[in-house]
Amino acid sequence: MAQPPDETPRAADAAWMATCLRLARRGLGNAWPNPAVGCVVVKDGRCVGRGWTQPGGRPHAETEALDRAGPAARGATAYISLEPCAHWGRTPPCTEALIAAGVARVVTAVEDPDPRVAGAGHAQLRAAGVAVTENLERARAEWLNAGFFTRIRAGRPLVALKLAQSLDGRIATATGASRWITGAEARAVGHRLRAEHDAILVGSGTARTDDPALTCRLDGLEGRSPVRVVVDARASLAPTSALARTAREVPTWLLTAEDAATDALERAGVRVLRIAADGGGHVELAAGLRALGREGITRVLVEGGAGIAGALTARGLVDRLYLFAGGRVIGGDGLAAIAGFGVEALADAPRFRHIDDLACGPDRLQLWTRAD
After folding, report:
1. Cα 246 from Cα 192, distance rounded (Å)
2. How distant, in Å, are the alpha carbons of 17, 49, 156, 253, 262 from that of 288?
3. What is the pLDDT of residues 99-136, one digit of tens each?
4. Rounded CA gap, 305 and 308, in Å?
5. Catalytic residue among 7, 62, 96, 142
6. Is 111 a catalytic residue?
């Protein structure tokens, strides 16, 4: 790839970092428990190597890019969407790989919040004589890896609530009919969201009533289906359900109460995570999300139903809202997208900030983020 037409250092740096971020996105939903990182090695205005975090978090983006660059990495600039790791884990430190390759300069988007790194990567590079530029496209990099950052800082994954509703906020008619409120284009975008999340979560009612597969069914992305998580305090998921029957093909986890009977589901291949119940006998959701975080999950897409959507929203656990709206009006006797959770004063209602709109054929997708 040749250097962009505007060859001023600042413009060139920004363009190469934008390429890093596009590469990093390829790892979303596939790199956990690690962050999704992109790296481009540039010499004399040309890309000589590029990489992104591989499935399961390794090899790292830097290793991939340096391997492709080979000897051309000496004296080059490495653009990386996250500070390179400085510690031994399942792989050697990326800082050592960059230094050994003879890279002259490193440009990063954002510091890694992992306490094992947290500035140490930049410091090691500088100590070895490598020039370091930090915080280029920081906001975009933080948005992309918000799931990893949330797991490090809060001990839980980022939670994205996806709703497909009518213009008046209904997800089904009074009889439960819901196929299809939105069209094929919107559903394709929804499947893309599945591929970019580590896990997809539903409540027990949705699992029983809809018997969903919760897989990614886009051509070429069939292998990118996320871990399927069912919140079900009584372990009522049937061993004959689509989720249980395919648990050995696509990972299926159950968040359930400590005393729930799960033998049949475990024999089917369902993984059980036992969580303390709240005062109403339901799975304590914050504890359930922390359990997912301990397993390395960084991004969770919540797809239903209204009860789990309301419970997560009421507890301030929804970080992003993907709101698909189809051009239909169902009326007040339809099923609300989010179950009631006792808001009496507007000041107490959870607030979200609008980020973007996307046309999906005849339908619309709105992206909102929690207003802290």
Report:
1. 21
2. 36, 41, 9, 11, 17
3. 999 999 999 999 999 999 999 999 999 999 999 999 99
4. 6
5. 62
6. no
